[in-house]
Design goal:
heterodimer; A: alpha+beta; 4 domains; 4-stranded parallel sheet; 11 helices; B: mainly alpha; 4 strands; about 55% helix; about 0% strand; nucleotide-binding (chain A); tubulin binding (chain A); tubulin-glutamic acid ligase activity (chain A); Polyglutamylase complex subunit TTLL1 (chain A); cytoskeleton (chain A)
């Protein structure tokens, strides 16, 4: 027989101190990729190779990786939208009350992604929508890129002539997924604080999709644009005004390296409670939790729920001036670079708490375990949704606990040391 | 001693004089006149009927609030024969010290002015005016060259002055005996001891519910929080300043705080207030003041780098630039020990006809001044309301933190209160710190001067300022400072240098103020 004792052997292809320090503090041993490893924190390129059909890689029971094989169902902008649209249609077909629409045909509870089309595939559909509101602004995002690269705003059809399928001037031949774009209605009435635009970055850990078990990190943050927000058309080209990615903001003149233009979510809550009231603030945070869970439910059926996998996503959310949250995108590889000292501490703790949940007791993992960590190891995570627990409650909770309904849904107080957590809805 | 009836009638006379001619007065007159058309007003009982009408329509309450506000802000006259400077500051040596300090500040300002060859005030050319107007909401993006400007003074300069204050009537023997006060402040002012503080702050007692303690995650809201919120809503519905002031002693629910503070400070943001603010704004556009650069510099050095307040940088300019030009602030000098600096039109030095107050509001900002405004941005996002709240907070409280006076809420008394509390209740710690050259006041002074803004987490700071408003006093700042030292006493006993002591106390951002205060006042064995 073989003693399974010994230290966890780790590999990573991401050279970040917040990761490595966490491995080392657990006394884990670094090994190379071709050696026997137990834990591999890999970049998204590597996960593609590991699970690709050609390599025929088989993970053994004592090996864990930090991505699901087809995470792109959630993390690619076009696929995320596709899956959410599919999910909504399915619910509608089953006659679920969640798919209820209002008098304008908009989903009441599931309208949380701005109207989006794929280009060039849906070009004509897009044009139809565009003409309904010719003065609106749209944001073009390349499907395969991150960190705000390649994003631009348009408010005229001529600006995206290239993607028109009928376009004779189109030298745009390749339809490979790398060149695909999504175009979304730009939210031009974002909630402003101090006159500045911001978005929310929240971390969500998924340990299994079926049954769905996910955790939300209590210490999310707001990323502020350093330049004053103006919806004026002349500033459409100024990415410092419109994009909140730190990678972009860092190069603006006013970027500050002490606070990095970031606010904690608890500051946001304090500000909103003080200026808007407690009920609407609680409702906002409930809705944010709701849309995260719905997005995960939408992709759960198509996700390869490989038991060797867990994943920590970076959710980007924008709040509009009516206090409605919008899901902008989900990142599979949220940045582990630290832009300020506070940042470094936050990301270090994030990885620490993530590892405590994904690799119980810091010991050599057994991927067959039930993925139910005890409450004490959650650290700054709190349970966002636990499908098993929700089901074992027996009663049908689909009808209760939609956002805005007071029953059983309490906003979590991130400031205090963890009031027992939200989700009682399915 | 002044006979109480005499004192009362003097006070009434003063309040009446101040309210006469105010906009509230004319509104009341108008309301009374309008009420004549109402059927319930009868000629035979005209006076009574109008009074009843004003009561039921809420106008009497507004008048009550205004009177209450006056009583809170202006001290009661000590004696009908007392000269005006006694209302400002009864002790002659304090007045003298404040006067010298002011001369020093003004000299520093003037020399900066001469050195940089910049006038104290200048009219802006038309194109610059237009540009500023366009940029009004984003002055933070401006990058003026501020490298040559320095703050006129910093809190530690002020501390040096306070350390050297002496009462000339008091024998300061050369031999320090055990009776002598071992701290930095060497003037004999009366400060409260713990029994008196317990009585004064009785609502902070152990068996009374508090926000900041009894609303934490582990406590079910039914125990205190829900009821407290209900009471708060009732207080707001009644629009009663005095009730609000009593209520906030137990802390404000976050959703009600903005309105409660406005009620206590008697700020209602009327159209004429908004108009007044707009007028100040146009003054800013038209004229450039040297102090504007000082304000810019201060904001850039402090609030812009603060994790909580950087977001509101632009609001700070909008408030502080207007504040400098607000001559209504000059009124507070009647009860402040300070006097507004005077400047003379070029070439007419000494000629009173050519004297102007500089800056127009008489307040020269110092390093950290903008931190008085910053926390308020979490509560008020409408510039004119934010402005009025800040102005009222300044003329009621903050001015006492940077002027030399014997007032119990003045910075001198607060320093002495802090040192006395520490020396009396933590004598070992006090003595140890003194021995290693780390006089506690050297560390806590900056906390008190800033009313802890920038040192505590914002939610905690707001809970602290709730109590400042509730008790109409700044003494709680000194008590908190002592409580912080008490909390970190174990670590402080082990340090061997001022730098190490500073390090132990460098980060207050995780402290919870209400438990600290409660334990220090009510749960420490004296």
């Amino acid at each position: 027989f073989r003693i399974m004792a010994g230290k966890v052997k780790w590999v990573t292809d991401i050279e970040k101190s917040v990761l490595i320090n966490n491995f080392e503090k657990r006394g884990w041993i670094q090994v190379a990729e071709n050696e026997d490893w137990n834990f591999y924190w890999m970049s998204v390129q590597t996960i593609r190779n590991v699970f690709s059909v050609e390599t025929g890689y088989r993970l053994s029971d004592d090996q864990i990786v930090n991505h699901f094989p087809n995470h792109y169902e959630l993390t690619r902008k076009d696929l995320m939208v596709k899956n959410i649209k599919r999910y909504r249609k399915e619910l509608e077909k089953e006659g679920s009350p969640l798919a209820e629409k209002d008098e304008n045909g908009k989903y009441i509870y599931l309208d949380f992604v701005p109207v989006t089309f794929m280009l060039p595939a849906d070009y004509n559909l897009f044009v139809e929508e565009f003409r309904k509101n010719p003065s609106s602004t749209w944001i073009m995002k390349p499907c395969g890129k991150a960190q705000g690269k390649g994003i631009f705003l348009i408010n005229k059809l001529s600006q995206i002539k290239k993607w028109s399928r009928d376009s004779k001037t189109s030298s745009f031949v390749s339809q490979s997924s790398k060149e695909a774009y999504v175009i979304s209605l730009y939210i031009n009435n974002p909630l402003l604080i101090g006159g500045k635009k911001f978005d929310l970055r929240l971390y969500v850990l998924v340990s299994t999709y079926r049954p769905l078990r996910c955790y939300m990190y209590k210490l999310g943050f707001c990323r502020f644009c350093t330049v004053k927000y103006t919806p004026s058309t002349s500033e459409l080209d100024n990415m410092f005004v419109h994009l909140t990615n730190v990678a972009i903001q860092k190069h603006g003149d006013d970027y500050n390296h002490i606070h990095g233009g970031k606010w904690t979510v608890s500051n946001l809550r304090l500000y909103l409670e003080s200026t808007r009231g407690k009920e609407v603030t609680n409702k906002l945070f409930d809705e944010i939790h709701w849309i995260i869970v719905q997005s995960l439910k939408a992709v759960a059926p198509v996700m390869n729920n490989d038991k060797h996998c867990f994943e920590c996503y970076g959710y980007d959310i924008i709040i509009d001036d009516k206090l409605k949250p919008w899901l902008i995108e989900v990142n599979a590889s949220p940045s582990l670079t630290s832009s300020t000292a506070n940042d470094r501490i936050l990301k270090y703790n994030l990885i620490n708490d993530t590892l405590n949940i994904a690799v119980p007791n810091g010991e050599i993992p057994d991927c067959k375990w039930n993925k139910s960590p005890p409450k004490e190891v959650l650290g700054n995570y709190e349970v966002l949704y636990d499908e098993e627990m929700a089901q074992s409650d027996g009663t049908d909770r689909d009808l209760r606990g939609r956002p805005g309904q007071p029953m059983g849904v309490k906003g979590s107080r991130t400031r205090d040391s963890g009031k027992p957590v939200l989700t009682t809805w399915k | 001693m002044l006979d109480p009836d005499r004192g009362l009638s003097l006070t009434i006379a003063r309040v009446v004089q101040r309210l006469q001619g105010s906009s509230l007065h004319s509104q009341l007159e108008r309301q009374a006149r309008v009420s004549l058309h109402k059927p319930e007003i009868k000629l035979e009982s005209l006076k009574e009927d109008i009074k009843d009408f004003l009561k039921t329509s809420g106008w009497e309450k507004k008048l009550q609030n205004a009177v209450y506000s006056e009583l809170n802000v202006f001290p009661s006259p000590c004696h009908p024969a007392a000269p005006p400077e006694h209302i400002k500051e009864p002790l002659a040596y304090m007045r003298k010290a404040q006067g010298s300090w002011e001369k020093r500040i003004l000299k520093s300002l003037n020399s900066m002015c001469t050195e940089l060859n910049i006038p104290l005030a200048q009219k802006r050319p038309a194109n610059e005016q237009k540009e500023l107007l366009n940029k009004w909401n984003e002055m933070g993006t401006d990058e003026p060259d501020l490298s040559l400007f320095r703050p006129v003074y910093a809190p530690k300069d002020f501390l040096e002055v306070l350390m050297n204050l002496r009462n000339p009537n008091y024998e300061n023997g050369e031999q320090p005996s055990f009776r002598n006060h071992l701290g930095l402040i060497q003037v004999p002012l009366k400060v409260k001891d713990i029994p008196e503080l317990k009585e004064n702050f009785s609502e902070l007692g152990l068996n009374i519910g508090q926000l900041g303690i009894d609303d934490s995650a582990q406590v079910p809201p039914e125990f205190f929080e829900n009821e407290h919120v209900c009471v708060g809503q009732k207080v707001l519905a009644e629009q009663d300043s005095a009730a609000a002031q009593q209520y906030v002693r137990q802390g404000c629910p976050t959703a009600l705080r903005a309105d409660l503070w406005a009620l206590i400070l008697n700020i209602s943001n009327q159209p004429e207030d908004i108009l007044y603010y707009e007028q100040l704004k146009s003054n800013v556009i038209q004229h450039n003041l040297l102090v504007d650069s000082l304000i810019y510099k201060d904001v850039k050095l402090t609030a812009s780098n603060d994790d909580y307040y950087f977001v509101f940088e632009d609001y700070l300019y909008q408030v502080l630039l207007c504040f400098s030009r607000d001559t209504s602030v000059l009124e507070h000098f009647t009860y402040s020990s300070a006097n507004p600096p005077k400047s003379y039109i070029q070439g007419k030095l000494g000629m009173e006809e050519y004297a102007v107050f500089y800056p127009p509001n008489g307040v020269i900002p110092f390093h950290g001044f903008s931190m008085y405004v910053a926390p308020l941005c979490f509560l008020y996002h409408e510039p004119s309301k934010l402005y009025q709240i800040f102005r009222e907070m300044y003329v009621r409280f903050f001015f006492r933190l940077h002027s030399i006076s014997s007032h119990p809420s003045g910075i001198v008394s607060l320093c002495l209160l802090f040192e006395t509390l520490l020396q009396t209740h933590l004598p070992q710690l006090f003595y140890h710190l003194r021995e290693i050259g780390a006089q506690p006041l050297r560390i806590s002074f900056k906390w008190m001067v800033r009313a802890f803004s920038g040192y505590l987490a914002t939610d905690q700071l707001l809970l602290l300022w709730d109590r400042i408003l509730g008790y109409n006093s700044l003494e709680i700042l000194a008590v908190l400072a002592a409580a912080v030292f008490a909390f970190r006493a174990v670590n402080l006993m082990e340090v061997t240098s001022l730098a190490a002591a500073e390090a132990v106390l460098a980060d207050l951002s995780t402290l919870k103020v209400m438990p600290l205060l409660q334990i220090f006042l009510f749960a420490t064995v004296t």
